[in-house]
């Protein structure tokens, strides 16, 4: 039997997300990003296609590395303006029954006590369909926005994140017992005080003496996503993540990352299948190869090379505006997304240039698209799943909504015929659908903080 493939839509509450310039295409609807109806219709479409989730990226800064200015980002709508993605999730949940919602939140800038309440609230309102993409940030502009001169060093951010995770686990998993809420109308007792604990956390970064304000939600802890592929990021993922995102590169590279994270998770006492891996992908699909190629060439006419460089400059921590087209680029030591720099070096070689970078960004991003007929794309998805061990794909948008409608109408039926895609949703929460259980397993790092372990150091 083939491996079952899982699909997420990858988007952002903005105009220009990954494929820069696509918002100028006449059929693209991303300019409606601030309309609630846009997201309602979006969610309905994805649920029709049995997508596992809509995954929201997010940043809390502007891309000002290119030319040391935000001007090019503003001109090209490179993830700015960008709205808070959490606020549209309840509306999408109200018109769907199964679709999961992953939301990116930067723990470096989120007060953990209030963040824990916000995620529990979303888990309640969605009926247990919320996930959290744990990020530590990479933009100096975001640091400056909250009064910090610049980014904390890459590995130090992960050290901070480990303490943050311990604290939110205590709040989500340990503050309230499952039977704390009795809701006894006859006695007038709603919650049993003996079943609710005040959390006392006094760590290097955080101090909290308070009970969690929310009663236990369906999942307690949201489904945990993480996208770090650097050495330190993989260690963090092996400890905390249930779902890991990896960037597209050669199959051998993806397989090495997948195997390494799962091996580290097993060493920590987890099961290998406790971690699902999603590969970032961009699909341009047609009924025939010729139709797909024609669509691809049409899309290419709307690419913004400047906007693509703006995005790459921020995520790689390199100001490409300083270099001539064929001048070798010096990567140096970056505090941005280290795994992106490593992946770029693997694909373009140690001496990359702006020209080499632009040659790879054929649709406005460093993620080369897979272009072809539905049969060809289905073959690719299955081959990558079988040969690398990834569980699914995080599909970034090109022209919306047609890019997802093409996948749903053309590719999904083929995958279903081949036994590689579900024909119906499993019941239950987001975690139920992914792992067969509503709560984190006893082997997860969060389990130690349950019950009387809520206040362990």
From TrEMBL:
InterPro entries: Diverse_substr_monoxygenases, Luciferase-like_dom, Luciferase-like_sf, NTA_MOA
Gene Ontology molecular function: any one: oxidoreductase activity, acting on paired donors, with incorporation or reduction of molecular oxygen
Alphabetical keyword list: Flavoprotein, FMN, Monooxygenase, Oxidoreductase
Keyword Oxidoreductase: yes
Binding site for FMN: 58, 104, 154, 158, 229-230
Domain Luciferase-like: residue ranges: 25-391
Family indicated by similarity: Belongs to the NtaA/SnaA/DszA monooxygenase family.
Name used for this protein in its record: N5,N10-methylene tetrahydromethanopterin reductase
């Amino acid at each position: 039997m083939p491996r079952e493939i899982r699909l997420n839509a990858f988007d952002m509450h903005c105009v220009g997300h990954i494929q820069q310039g696509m918002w100028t295409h006449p059929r693209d609807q991303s300019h409606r990003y601030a309309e609630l109806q846009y997201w309602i219709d979006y969610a309905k479409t994805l649920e029709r296609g049995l997508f596992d989730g809509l995954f929201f990226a997010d940043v809390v800064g502007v891309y000002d590395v290119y030319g040391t200015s935000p001007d090019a980002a503003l001109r090209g709508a490179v993830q700015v303006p960008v709205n808070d993605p959490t606020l549209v999730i309840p509306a999408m949940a109200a018109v769907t029954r199964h679709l999961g919602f992953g939301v990116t939140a930067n723990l470096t800038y989120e007060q953990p006590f209030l963040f824990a309440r916000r995620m529990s609230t979303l888990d309640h309102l969605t009926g247990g369909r919320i996930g959290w993409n744990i990020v530590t940030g990479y933009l100096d502009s975001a640091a400056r926005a909250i009064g910090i001169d610049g980014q904390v060093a890459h590995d130090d951010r992960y050290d901070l994140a480990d303490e943050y995770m311990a604290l939110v686990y205590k709040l989500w998993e340990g503050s309230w017992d499952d039977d704390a809420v009795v809701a006894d109308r006859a006695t007038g007792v709603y919650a049993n005080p003996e079943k609710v604990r005040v959390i006392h956390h006094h760590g290097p970064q955080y101090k909290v003496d308070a009970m969690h304000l929310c009663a236990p939600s369906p999942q307690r802890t949201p489904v945990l996503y993480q996208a770090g592929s650097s050495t330190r990021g993989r260690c963090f993922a092996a400890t905390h993540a249930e779902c890991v995102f990896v960037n597209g590169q050669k199959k051998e590279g993806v397989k090495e990352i997948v195997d390494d994270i799962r091996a580290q998770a097993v060493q920590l006492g987890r099961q290998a299948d406790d971690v699902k891996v999603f590969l970032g992908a961009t699909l341009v699909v047609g009924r025939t190869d010729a139709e797909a190629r024609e669509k691809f060439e049409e899309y290419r006419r709307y690419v913004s090379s400047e906007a693509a460089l703006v995005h790459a400059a921020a995520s790689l921590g390199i100001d490409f505006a300083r270099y001539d087209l064929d001048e070798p680029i010096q990567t140096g030591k970056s505090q941005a997304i280290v795994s992106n720099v490593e992946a770029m070096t693997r694909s373009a070689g140690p001496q990359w240039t702006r020209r080499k970078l632009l040659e790879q960004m054929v649709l406005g991003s460093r993620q080369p698209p897979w272009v072809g007929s539905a049969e060809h794309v289905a073959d690719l998805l299955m081959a990558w799943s079988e040969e690398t061990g990834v569980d699914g794909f995080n599909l970034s948008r090109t022209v919306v909504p047609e890019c997802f409608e093409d996948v749903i109408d053309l590719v999904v039926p083929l995958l279903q015929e081949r036994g590689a895609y579900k024909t119906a949703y499993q019941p239950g929460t987001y975690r139920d659908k992914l792992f067969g259980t509503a709560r984190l397993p006893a082997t997860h790092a969060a389990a130690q903080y349950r019950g009387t372990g809520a206040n362990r150091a």
